[in-house]
Amino acid sequence: MTSLSGVTRRSLLASTAALLIAPSASYGETVQGALPWQPDAARPPVQVRPGPWAYFTPEEGGAIEALVDRLIPGDDLSPGGKDTGCAVFIDRQLSSAYGQARGLYMRPPFQEGSPEQGPQSPQTPAQRYRLALAELDKHCKAAFAGKPFRDIPDDQKDKLISGMEKGGVQLGSVSARAFFELLLQNTTEGFFADPVYGGNRDMAAWKMVGFPGARYDYRDWVERHNERYPLPPVGISGRPGWIAQTKG
Amino acid sequence: MIGSPLRLGGALVIALLSATARGALADDKQAFELIARGRYLATAGDCTACHTPARGALFSGGRPIDTPFGTLLGPNITPDQETGIGNWTDDEFVNALKVGTGHNGEHIYPAMPYTYYTNLTREDALTIRAYLNTIEPIRHEVHPNQLSFPFSIRALLIGWNGLFFKPGTFSAEPRKSPEWNQGAYLVQGLGHCGMCHTPKNMFGADHLDQTFQGYALQGWFAPAVTNNAHTGIGAWSVDDLVLYLKTGRNRFDIASGPMAEVVADSTSQMAVADLRAIAIYLKDQPATGGSPPNPVNADEPRMKSGAAIYADSCAACHTSSGEGITGLFPKLAGAPLVQQADPASLLHVVLHGNRAVATDLAPTGPAMPAYDWKLSDDQVAAVLTYIRNSWGNAAPAVTAADVSGARHARAADAH
Amino acid sequence: MARKLPATDVVVIGLGWTGSILANELTDAGLNVVAIERGPWRDTAADFPTTYAQDELRYHIRHDLFLRPAQETFTVRHNVGQAALPMRTWGSFMPPNGVGGGGVHWNAETWRFLPSDFQLRSHLTQRYGAAFLPEDMTIQDWGITYDDLEPYYDRFERLCGTSGRAGNINGQKQAGGNPFEGPRSRDYPTPPQKQPYGPVLFAQAAREMGYSPFPQPSGNLSQGYTNPLGVTIGPCTYCGYCEWFGCGNYSKASPQTTILPVLVRKPNFEARTLCEVIKINLDASGKRATGVTYVDTSGDEWEQPADLVLLCAFQLFNVRMLLLSGIGTPYDPQTGQGVIGRNYSYQVTSSVDAFWNEKNFNPFVASGAIGMCIDEFNGDNFDHGPHGFVGGGYMGAVQTNGRPILGTRVPPGTPTWGAAWKKAIAQNYLSSYGMATHGSCYSYRDVFLDLDPTYKDAHGRPLMRITFDFHQNELRMSQFLTDRVAEVTQKMGPQQIVKRPRTGHYDDTKYQTTHTCGGAIMGTDPKTSALNRYLQSWDVSNLFVTGATAFPQNAGYNPTGTVGALAFWAADAIRNQYMKNPGPLVQT
Predict the structure, then answer these.
(1) Complex ipTM tops 0.90
(2) Which residues of chain B lie closer than 8 angstroms to A13, CB-CB?
(3) Of A160, B169, B199, C65, which residue has the fewest beta carbons closer than 10 angstroms?
(4) What is the model's pLDDT at position B3?
(5) Which residues of A are less than 8 Å from C420 in CB distance?
(6) What is the pLDDT of residue B410?
(7) What is the distance in angstroms between the Cα of C310 and the nearest Cα belonging to chain B?
(8) Does the beta-carbon distance from C224 to B325 stay under 8 Å?
(9) Can you say whether the dihedral through the CA atoms of A188, A192, A194, A200 is positive or negative?
(10) Predicted confidence band at B67 (pLDDT cuts at 50, 70, 90)?
(11) What pLDDT is stored for residue A247 in this prediction?
C-alpha cells in the first residue's frame, strides 16, 4: 500500500465494477465484476403456425399426414395425428437444426456396428425422410395400382406400417424398420411436445393423459395424494384462460 | 463467511467529517483521512451515477442522462487540466455543487442536483474536491449540452433558478435529534433522494407540496417514499429501510432498476449509522399521497384472466399468495411499488426483465426474465391489474395502451 | 502459434461445480484465478427462465444445454476385439457444456458414499477373502477415509442447502434418516422435501417389510436458504423439470445458485467463456505444468501461463486432456501397466414398472431428488456371501418427472402405436409408477479409456475411446437389486409389475446416467493411480484433477456429493499445504 490514490482507486473500481460481458474477438467472452445481464435476454421458441410445408413436397406432406394419422388415429380420446399437428411439427423440425443434424457428429468413416453403438448413418433426418418417403411411394404405387400411401384403405395402411415395424416390408435401399422408428419417435414428439412447436394442437395430447403442461409450481399439490390435479394444461404460449372472455 | 449482516462499523458522522476537514493535509495520515472521507462523500452523493461512463474510467464523463428536455452528458470531473476540472478553482468547484455555476461562472443544468447539494457545508464540498484531486486524470472531452433549442440556451437557467432554486447551506432543526438532523442533511443534500422520488412540474423542478410522492423517469417510476402505508414506506421500519439501503433487500423487496444502481454504487457502501439517520428522517416524514382507491372487482374478466396468467406464469417465484421469497422474489402483496398510480416500473420489469441488485452482503442478484415475447398487451395489462388489485392491493387498472406504450418506448439503457 | 498472455496464479479448466468451488476457495486465499470454459455463460433468467424452461422437446429430447457431439464425442466398443464407433448423438450419458457444467442440469440427488466404499478392496477382502472377488476386478482403496472427507461433505451440503434427514449424527442413529450412512457431524441444512403419493406408498410398504425408508437427500430445496457465502436459494416448486433442464426459479443447487454470484464479484477472478483448452503445457522436464493453450471462437490460439493448473472439466474430458497433453503413462490393458485411462467405471441402474387400475400418482408433481429410498442393499450393508457378487445400490420411489414424450409407461404387450397404444397411454399415465435401483459399478482390467486411432474432433485431434461393458458381477447385482425393489413394489398392491433389471451389453443409445467415473484415479501408489490422495497429479505436482475422474470405482450412489466434497478437500490441501510449500504433497 504505497500509493494512496492507487489504493483508493482500486478499491473503488472493485466496488463499482459493472463490466459485464465484453465481447472480444480474440478472447471469446470475459466475465468479471458482476453477473452478466441484458434486458430482453431470452431465446424463446418461435410459435409454429400451420401453413405451407417448409420442408416436405406436397406429396411428401400428404404421405406424412396419412402416416401420423394411423400412428395416432383420431378417436374419442383425442383428435388424430394430423389434426393435432404432428405432420406440421415434423415438417418444421426437419427444416430446422434437427433435420439437418446440426451439432451432431457427422465425420467419417461411417460403418455399421452393433445396435448398442447407435445409428451410424451419414444421412441427416431430413435426407432420411426424403429417401424413405420416395421408396414408400414407389412401394405403394406398385402394390396398390398406382395409389400413393395416403389413398390406400386404412386397414392396408396399418398392415403396411406393421410390416415396416416388424420387418415384413422392404423399402428399397432404406431400412423400413429404421424409418418406422424415426417416424414414430418424431410423431410421439409432435403429439406430446409443447404446442409452440406445431403439434399437440389445443394441448389435446396433454388433456388426454392428464398432464398439466408447462406449469412450474405444484407446491400446493404435492401432498394432495391420489387426487386429480384441478387446473387445465398450459403451454409456453399460454392457454385459453389467459384471454379475457369479454372486453375488460 | 458473512457474520452479522450489518457488521460494517466505522460509522462516519457528518458533523465529524466537517470538523476534521479543516486540518487538511497537515500530514499523510490526515491526508489519507481527508481523501477517504472525500471518497465516502462522493459515494454518498453517487457522483459516479452521472459522471462515470459505462465501461469507462472513473468520473471521466460522457454518460448520457435522459431528461424530459433532452439528453445531457455527465461531464468529466477527473483532475485533467484541459478536459476535466483540474484547472477549476476551489470556489468554482464549491459553486458547482452549491450554486449551480461552473468554470467561469456558466450555468449548469439542474440535472446536476445543485438544488440539493446546496445544502452541503463548504468543508464537505472541499473534502470531495480533495478526493477528486487524487484520482487519475483522464483526458476525455465531453460536451454535456446535447439539448435542442430552446433548452440549449443556458441563460434560461437564470430564470429557472430565480423561480425554483433557493441556495443555502443546511441548517439543523434544533427540536430534532442529532440523528434526525444527520439524516436530513444527507437526504436533502448528498443523497438527493427527491431528484427521483419527488414529482416535478413542467419545468422539471420539484413540486414541493408533493415531496417524495414518486416520479416517472427513464422508463421507470421511482415510487413514493412518504410514510403512506399504501404507496409509501409506511409499513417499513427503520431497520427495514437500513437493510434495504445497505444490502439492497429486506423482507419486502429487492432493489431493481435505477435504484439497484443507487444501492450498488452508493448506499451499500455507506456507514450503517448514516443509513439509520436517513431512515429515521424519512420515517418522520408525513404520510402524504391520499388514500387507496377501491380495488378492481375480482369478478371482472380482466381480473380472471390476470389470475390465470399469474397462477401459470408468476406464482412459481412470487408464490400464489403474492408473498414472494425473502432475498429472491419480491413480495407483491402490500408492496408500495406495485400500488403506485403509475405502473411504469412494473411494465418495465415484466416486459424487459431485470436483474436485482447484488451487494457484498446480499450477493445473489436474482433476475426476472423478460415477458415481452410471451404476453400480449392485453395479457400484461390483465396480470398487472390482477397483481395491483389482489391480496389487499388496490391500484388503478393497467390498460393495453399502457403496455403498448411501454413496449415501444426505448428501454432505458441501464448503463 | 499461440500468443502468450500475462501469467496468472491459477488457471481452472472448466467452470462447473468443482471449478467454481476451487476458484472461490483460491481467490479467497488471495490468488488470481482465470477460469477457461469451453461453453457459454449460463444464466437462469436468460438461458432457462420460467417463461420457457419447461420444454421437454428442447432441453431433454434435443439436448439444448449439452455439448454438441460435433465439437467432441467419444467412440465406444464393448471389448478390444470390436471396432469402436462414435456416439454421433448423445445416448447413455449427457456431457455437459457451459458455465455451471452438469450442476445446471442434474437431478440434485446429493448423497454421501459409505465409509466402506472408500476402503473397498481392503474391506471386502477382509470380510469375504480375496478369492471372493472376480480375478479381473481392479477395485482399489481411495487413499482417504470417510472420516477424512466428512467435514468436506458437510461443506458441500452447506453450500447447496441440501434437504434431508440425518440417519447418524456423530454415531447416534436418528429416526427417519438413513441408518446406514456414515456418521455426520450435524443434520442437513434444510428439512426433507415434501413427498408425493408414490414415495409415501413405497415407504409404507418398505416399513412393513422391516426396512428403514428415508427421504432422498435433495439439492432441490424444501425451503428458502441462504448459504455460508450469503447466496440465497429458493424453495423447490416441484415442477418436474430438473434433470436435463436448468432450474428457472433458483431452487436447485448449482454453481449459478450457490457460488457464481459471489465469485464474479471478486477482482481476482475472471472467467473466459467460449474458449476451449486444447492442451496443458509442460516444461522441458515434463514434471511441471507451465499453463494451458486454448482456442477462442475465432480459432486463434492463446497461451495462458499459470503457476497452478486445475483440471476441472467433466470426467471423460479430464482423462482425454491428460492423454492429449502427454501427462502420466497411458494404461495398457495387456500388461495392466500405466494409469491414465485405468479403472473406468459407470453406474448400474434398473427399474420396476407397476400398474394400478384406480390410483392417481400425479407423476408431474416432481423434483429431481424427491423420493423415499432404502439403503439395506447398498455397498456392503448386507452379507454378500450367499449371493456371489459384490456391490449394491439404493432403491426407492423417486419421482423425477411426468414429462409425456419419454415419461409414459404402458403394460407389456401394448402395441407401440395406434388406437390400442393411445388407450393404454391414456389409462396408465396417472396410475402407473416406476421404482428405481441405483447400483454400483466396479472397475475391471479390460475396461478403460484411450485415444481413438480413427476418429477426430473438430480440431482434428483424436477422440477418446471408451472400452466398456457390464460384467457378470454387476448384472447379477442388478438382478438382485431389481428383485428386492420388486418385492417392495408388490407390497404396494399394484395389478401388475414389470421388472427391468440391467441385462445384456452396454447400450450407448439408451440413457442410464451421466455418472461416468475413473480414468485418472486417486490412490496411494503412483503405479496404480494417477493422483495422490489430494487429487494432485503424481507426475506433475502443480496439476490437480477434480471430479469423478478420481473415483477408483463407482459406489451405489449418485456421485455429485462426493465430487463436491473432494473439491473442497483438494482446495484445503492447496490452501493449507501446497501454497506454503509448492511441490508433491505426498512423497513416493
Answers:
(1) yes
(2) 58
(3) B169
(4) 31
(5) none
(6) 53
(7) 24
(8) yes
(9) positive
(10) confident
(11) 44
Contacts of B367 in chain A (CB under 8 A): 35, 37
Which one-letter DSSP state was computed for residue A97?
A: T
Write down the pLDDT at residue A23. 41
Count CA atoms closer than 13 A to C247's CA, side-chain side. Answer: 37
Residue B89 has pLDDT above 60, yes or no: yes
Q: Which residues of A touch C249 (CB under 8 A)?
A: 216
Neighbour count for residue B177 (Cβ, 10 Å): 13
Judge whether residue A27 has pLDDT over 70. Answer: no
How much is the average pLDDT of B59-71? 89
B95 and B212 together in one domain: no
In a domain, B114, yes or no: yes
Q: In this model, does residue A21 exceed pLDDT 70?
A: no
The verdict on B188 and B246 lying in the same domain is yes
Please report, for residues A150, A165, A175, B10, C200, the alpha-carbon distance to residue A169 in angstroms, rounded to integers and kept in the order given.
17, 8, 9, 85, 48
Smallest Cβ–Cβ distance between B328 and the set C28, C49, C232 belongs to C232
What is the tens place of the pLDDT at every residue in B27-39? 677 789 999 999 9
pTM: 0.94
Same domain, B194 and B108: no
Same domain, B267 and B332: no
Residues B338-351 as b/e (b if ≥16 CB within 10 A, e otherwise) read: bbbbbbbbbbbbbb
Of C546, C549, C551, the residue nearest C564 (C-alpha): C546
* Residue of chain B whose alpha carbon sits nearest to that of A220: B320
Q: What is the grid cell recorded at A165? A: 415395424
CA distance C102 to C93: 11
B311 contact residues in A (CB cutoff 8 A):
217, 231
Q: Report yes or no: A246 at the B interface, CB cutoff 8 Å.
A: yes
Is residue C433 scored above 60 in pLDDT?
A: yes
For chain C, the chains sharing at least 3 beta-carbon pairs closer than 8 angstroms are A, B
The DSSP letter of residue B399 is P
Residue from the list B2, B328, B371 with its beta carbon closest to the beta carbon of C51: B371
Report the residue of chain A nearest B31, measured CA to CA.
Answer: A4
Q: Say if CB C248 and CB C142 are below 8 A apart.
A: no
- Distance, in Å, from the CA atom of C442 to the CA atom of C385, rounded to the nearest integer, reads 17
The CATH number that applies at residue B271 is 1.10.760
> In the predicted model, what is the mean pLDDT of chain C?
97
Test C50 with B369 for CB contact under 8 angstroms: yes
Check if C585 contacts A (Cβ < 8 Å). Answer: no
- Nearest Cβ partner for C249 among B1, B317, B363: B317
Range of the domain at B86: 14-136+153-164
Q: Is residue B172 part of a domain?
A: no
Average pLDDT, integer, range A12-27: 37
Is residue B228 located within the same domain as residue B339? no
Tell whether B158 and B46 lie within a shared domain: yes
Asked whether the beta carbons of residue C88 and residue A106 sit closer than 8 angstroms, the reply is yes
CA–CA separation, C279 and C293 (whole Å): 5
Residue B415 lies in a domain: no
User: Closest to B302 (Cβ–Cβ): which among A13, A234, A248?
Assistant: A248
Mean pLDDT calculated for residue range C315-323: 98
> C-alpha cell of B245?
439501503
Per-residue model confidence (pLDDT) at position C417: 98
Residue C172 has a CB neighbour count (10 Å cut-off) of: 9
The answer to whether residue C302 neighbours chain A at the CB level (below 8 Å) is yes
Set of chain A residues whose Cβ sits within 8 Å of the Cβ of C197: 225-226
Average pLDDT over residues C146-168: 98
Q: Is C459 a catalytic residue?
A: no
Chain-chain contact of A9 with B54 (C-beta, under 8 angstroms): no
Residues B31, B159 share a domain: yes
Q: Are residues B201 and B256 in the same domain?
A: yes
In a domain, residue B38? The reply is yes
Contact between C45 and A41 using a beta-carbon 8 Å cutoff? yes
Please report the sign of the dihedral spanned by the C-alpha atoms of residue A120, residue A126, residue A129, residue A132. Answer: negative
Q: What is the mean pLDDT of residues B281-295?
A: 94
Domain ranges of chain C: 3-578
Grid coordinates representing B43 are: 459515494
Fold entry, domain C3-578: FAD/NAD(P)-binding domain (3.50.50)
Q: Tally the domains of chain B.
A: 3
Question: Which of A209, A217, A219, A229 has the most C C-beta neighbours within 10 Å, making it the best mutation to test the interface with C?
Answer: A209
Give me the mean pLDDT over the B172-197 stretch.
97
